[in-house]
Description:
single chain, globular, 13 helices, mainly alpha, 2 strands, MetI-like fold, about 5% strand, two-stranded antiparallel ribbon
Amino acid sequence: MKKVFNKIRGVIIRSSGLLAFLALWEIAPRWGWVDPQFLPPLSSVLKATAVLWDDGFLYTHIIVSLWRVLLGMLLAIVIALPLGFILEGWFPSEAKRLDPLFRLLSHLNPFSLAPVFMLFFGIGELEKLAIITLVAVWPVLFHTITGIRTVDPLIIKTAYSLNVSKLILMQDVLLPGALPTIITGLRVGTQMAVFMLIAAEMLGASAGLGWLVHNSAMLYQIPRMYAGGLCIIVLGICINQIILRIERNSLFWKDSIEFLGQTNRRTVNFTNSLYVPILIGVIAGVLFFGGQEVNRVNSQGLYNKDNMSHHNHPIKVE
């Protein structure tokens, strides 16, 4: 019983800052510390969230945004992982020469290239996916290259001396050694993709959490605007926590002597095999249902003026 009490106490202490912030959010507009027209109470924001959910619009916004983030990250992984392994694994000198160019390109603001994206991809889903992919590809690429560089060079030299093929070298040496750093790159890339999603969905979109925030601001529906922002924050936190939980509960790194007689090679074990099919199922579900919602929104013009006029009434502060 004492352990349970101490655990609950620890959770309350760790959450005290967040609870104080939420309480201040509710109290400040009601007590006149801030203008409730610009910062409505938390209860009004939650009420607006419930209205959107009851009408079925919030599900569409969430699943469309998830689809865009997930597909953009998958494209970034498909581009960055092979490129990182090829450059640093096979052509390390070329990787060093290209590093300044990659660093320069990674600092380009995607919206400064918006006319170029519009020229090549038009105003639609391809443009948004291109922007999200461009932002997410660099963290994955840099962390992949960095992870490969941290692999013990003695093991790589021993593998070459035994005429190990490039494929086996990549699969049994480079990938296990670089995987922790790669996962960190995936986390960083996902966070940047979620942030960029907000701005990308303001470019000619008709659904999504970013579009919800922008549309609500234009219609001066402030509680609904904060509801969209709150959903974006929760979405980003959930995605980050899922990646952390998969890393902690499903992957296990340990020293091994099973390869080339070395004792410091790191192998990867899946300590919980259920995470892999569950993750694949979730990804497939988001891609399938999200793709359906994207097609429905884009083809039917779901969020036209008639549809949105239902939400143009103000939510009063009670």
